[in-house]
Amino acid sequence: MLRLVNLELQKLLLSRTNKILIFISFILPFTVLILSSIKINFFGFFTLELGELGIFNFPIIWHITTFFASYFKFFFAIVVVSMIGNEYSNKTIKQNLIDGLSKKEFILSKFYTIVFFSLFATVLIAVATFLIGLYYSSYTEANIIFRETEFLIAYFVKLVGFFTLCLFFGMLLRRSAFALAFLFLLYIAEWLIFWAAYKIFGTAEMAFRVKGFLPLESMYNLIDQPVQRLMIAKFPDKNELTYDYAVHWYEIAIVLGWTAILVFLSLRLLKKRDL
Fold first, then answer.
1. Full domain range(s) for residue 195
2. pLDDT at position 258, please?
3. DSSP assignment, residue 51?
């Protein structure tokens, strides 16, 4: 595995564009550190400091940081699809196979690299969240600090699933721009399936359940939006705001299932395709 990852890293780091995109994809999630220190002055009447609002308290901070950091995954998604696009445009995929790399190892080298970068990104966001929480949180008990760290697992699985989807589209279309465009088309297709399910079952709840088994929606469902949770913390008597924001095992299982399917389909495409 390390050999395949090392091989892929050597290819990626030869490109200055990839270096920049990788750097951005890892640095941008740390903007939460900047946000935590922002002070907004309202015309001299009062100053609003985000860090003093309680949004960086343990354990809710694990939820907040992983949710917002996940939106920066699109930068590394460009790297993933370019990994495949460059292999075809530069004819290196054929050369790799001639040099003795099997088709299975070729796909696994891409997948292992995805796992490596996803794990690295998860560790970075974990460290950043821990440090911000230690500085701002009014809770210092270990059982509270490490409660809800399952959001980190959900974050990792979400990254791996999304990048594997990009890998599949890259293999399917062989062009980076088309692969990224297909992500948008898949988003539209999932909403069309939602409306079809709504027509069939007659309720939005059942339609959302059906949509929850689809790739993009299942990945989004891993970490629910935390805004409503923050409102509940500020207005605990508002029962209508209550919702289920927890990370569930079956949501992780759905995304892992899609990840396995997409890796398998990528390999099948490569085996059947004339290089």
1. 2-272
2. 97
3. G
